[in-house]
Each structure stands twice: as C-alpha cells, then as structure tokens.
Amino acid sequence: MFDKYDVIVVGAGHSGSEAAAAAANMGAKTLLITMNLQTIAQMSCNPAMGGVAKGQIVREIDALGGYAGIVTDRTMIQFRMLNKSKGPAMWSPRAQSDRMQFSLEWRRMLEGTPNLDFWQDTVIGLLVQDNLITGVKTGLGMRIEASAVILTNGTFLNGLIHIGEKSFGGGRMGDKASTGITEQLVELGFQSSRMKTGTPVRVDGRTINFSLMEEQKGDEDPGCFSYLETNRLTEQKSCWITYTSLQVHETLREGFHLSPMFAGRIEGIGPRYCPSIEDKIDRFAGKNSHQLFVEPEGWNTAEYYVNGFSSSLPDYIQFKALRMIPGFENAKIFRPGYAIEYDFFPPEQLQNTLETKLIHNLYFAGQINGTTGYEEAGAQGLVAGINAALKVQGKGPFTLGRDEAYIGVLIDDLITKGVDEPYRMFTSRAEYRTLLRQDNADFRLTNMSFMLGLAKEDRHFAYLDKKKIVESMISFLKSTSIGPELINPVLLSRQTAPITQKVRLSSLLLRPQVSLSSLLPFIEKDLRISLGINQVSKVIMESVEIAVKYEGYILKESEIADKMKRIEDIRLKPDFDYHVLQSLSWEAREKLSKIKPATLGQASRISGVSPSDVAVLAVFLGR
User: What does residue 19 show for φ and ψ, rounded to 5 degrees?
Assistant: First the structure.
C-alpha cells in the first residue's frame, strides 16, 4: 500500500507541520501521520502567535521559508508590536489568531505542498535495525518504511489530563494519548522524564460583561509577520483585561486540597514563567490580585480564552471563582481548565541537527524535547525537517549559530544545557539580541534558505530588492546634509538642540528625539529620485532607522560574536574520552562525557564546565 518514503513525520502539530512542509519543499518524499486530520496545527492553548522573543522566532521561520508567518497573517484578528517603548532588540510582534481558521489554513497550505502525503493513524512503534531508523508501525497494523523519521508528539506521549481529583488519558481534551513509543525508546537506551503544562477555562463571550473590563485594542497601523506580501488587517477584534481579587483567591484555596499538583498526583515539572492560577496564589501569597487577559478565539465564535487563569482545580471551584471576577459575574463556560502531563526526552540526547545520538536518522522536535510554545515547536520542526531532507539526500547538515538566529539559541540551549522545566524563549537568553531583531530576520536567513532550496525565488527576489533599497537609503542618509534653516524648527519642536551649520542626516538621526519620519518631508523627493522608487514603505523606514541609530551597538555586538567564533569553530571528537584529561575538573569530565559537545564553544556553555576547563581543552587541542 505504501512505497518507501524519504521522511515520515509523526504528529501534525506546529512542529510536525513545519517539519513536513520543509522536508517536502526540499524535494523529499514525505508522509505526515497524525491521529486526526481535522486538528492539523491546532492551537491547543491560547489563540495567539508571537510575543516577546517568540515573535522574532516566527519571523525567522518565515525568512527560512516556513509557513507559520504566512498562516498567522492570513488568519489574525488582532496585531500588536510589543515593547515599542524599549530598544528595537526588544520589539516583538504578536497576533491574536482565529483558532479554527488557523488550523484550516495550515491544512490548505500543506495540501498544496508537493511531495507531501497524509495518513490518519496512530504510530505505536518505530522500525529500527542496527541503530538505524527504517520506518514506523501504526495502530492499523501498517509498517511504513522511511529513510528518516521525525517525532513531533507534543503532549501526547502517555498524556494524562487532570481536573481536580479526576484524571484520564489524553493528549489534549478530546484526543486520546499515544502509547508505545516511549517504552520502546527507553528499551533502546533513551532517557525519558515527565513534564506538565496546563490550559485555562474557556468562556461563552455572550455572557461576559465587557463594560467592567479594560479594552486592549490592536495597533492603529497593524503589521504582519511574513516578509512576503500578505493582506493587512483592516478590522480588528479587541482583547480585554480584568483582575482577580482576594475573594477569588480564597475561593480557589477551597479546592487546594483537591488539586492534583498540591496532592502530588502530578509528577511532571510545570512551567515556572506561566504557572497555574493556584500556583500563583500559593507562590505570591502577598499579592492581592493577578491580571487576566480575555482573548477572543475568532471572528465567528463566542468563545473566549482567559489567559492567566490556567488551572487543574475541580471544575466547580474554577466556575465559582470565575464568577467573582469583574465581567464574569454571569459567565457560562464551554469547558474547564485542566493540567496535562506527558513524556519528554531530555534534549542532551540530540545533536545540533536535532538528530538523536543513539539512533541514526531519527529526529525529535517540539515538546518531546522539553519545550513549550507553538513558536519554539515550529522552529524545531523546521530545522528537523531541513536536516532530515539533507541527510537522505546525502548532503551536509544545516545549523544556526547563536549570533545568527533565536532558533540557533533555542537549539543550542536545549542540547547543551538541557531543561529542568518546559523551555520558553526569552530575549534575555540571546547574548546577541541586538543582531537578532524581528525586523532583520530576512537579512539574516533568507539567503541561507534559498541556498538550501527551501525559500523560493519570489522570496529571494523580495529580500534582494529590500536589501538594495535599505543599503542605498543608508548611503543617502550618510552622504546628504541639511541646513539649519530647514531643520531647526523641527529640532526645537522636539526639544533637541538646533544646529548652526549643515550636518549629515545620519548624524541627526542619532538623536533619540529625531525619527526618520520627521526628516522625510525635507528629503522625500530627492530620496525617491536617488532610489528610483515612488514610495518608501514603513518596513523599509523602520529597518533603515534602526540600522543608522544603533550602528555602533550592532558593530560592537558583531565584533564580540566574531571573537567567540574563534572557539565556536574548533571541533571536538564525539568519541573523545574526557576522563583521560586529569586537569579537567571532575564535574567537567562528567558533563562533557554525557553531552559530547560538537565544538569548544558549545563545551564552554555547558553548566559545570569552567573557563579553566575550557582553557585545558584549548591547550590539549593546540590552541
């Protein structure tokens, strides 16, 4: 029934969908296996993409030829650029999505992808021969052969759902758990553990009194995620903000003795940065209230997501407490919040291509690696899909450095440091975040993707065209001067010192009070003639302004990154016996032997490996 595939992707969440699209678009004959074809790339938690650091990841996925940015643009119902009051390294796009349309659009795009087949079934085991993956076994009794397999099982591996004292198997509410794969992998020598995540109550919007809440509108001039031309929002739906109270907290405490988390029935480790409401009340006992974000699920549904009210308390306790929150006095719910715990595999067992160290041509991506978030999952799926396709085509691996992408930071953190809680990306995790901005992901990554054969010609041409205009515009600003009689009124109105002689436009732009838009009326005509274009887009203006204003910071960070590459590129043998180097600390020998870093740079980032240990390795290597 089935021919042999180049790549099989197990699971069609955000990670699996990106993995399947990437492998197929690179020419690999790909099969995507999922339990339910109606829930492809389903937003199991909040109906939103992006956010702090996550928005940068979506832009990177898009620049590499992935689908997440395009799907989000086509299905968003609100767009906001977060952290605009801070420096551009912190600017992060975020969009509310139409949950149902998001999944439908993902399916439409995948079905339009050449070389990609689908099969609705459950994978219950792997076909392995001499430490080489050869295919999968399914619940319907199929044995499907493949040269490479990517596991993107999300929260489904032995998933267990908790609501108060009730618990039952499931990968998410309404879907059964997946069994068999963990047990087989453990037999093969893999280490597994448990993690926990949760989701909040869903409320019927027809029963919410929004007049008692604070409205949170989208940006007046909404942006988008994809670097390709996608439709801009002309209408947006608002989100809303409300707050818990001491009364709400006391009501929730009534169910603490029934909480599976406090009673010890949940073994998995939960996310520290996104705790359940009962965990917040317990940990921050001195806080009288907590902020809640009330988010619409789509254009054509009354369902609302109560962000910040994640809970595994008994359903009746959740409902009772909810009705004490301003705006929810008469609320009806569609379903209660719940916690889910599931198996994951500590990611130190992976190479930087996301191929496992134990089994050749087997890749892990997404929550199976101990991460959380649609964006982090999609990024891993993309990298795994690219590398699986390259491997079966006999080509070299694709990896990203920490100075090249947040995706590079993500994967390096996972395989080098491991996880002790569900991993979420933050801007603070990236030491080169001035280089890794949301506005320049196409400059950083599009050419790489085009060389891989993933980004198509239209994307590459758009990148080259934008690059040419930005560089020409920067050159224009650095070579063009303006006199005091023209610009001083603007400078005085912006409470910055007037000039006494002609100065370069680029030097004026270094002033915090001066924006490129404030200079544009004086130079627009000459600029258009110089560039040979009719209009300068907002996106181009933003890229140029950031490049000029922060040139010093960008150059300094680039120099630091270049210095670090001196040790980053020093290769280490995967089979080296670190125990023979007695000059290394005992902890360093243990950690290095376990993780087997690929480079000296990776070794330097392992917790427990000191600078003196790195120096010992460098001396041994003759460096």
Answer: -65, -45
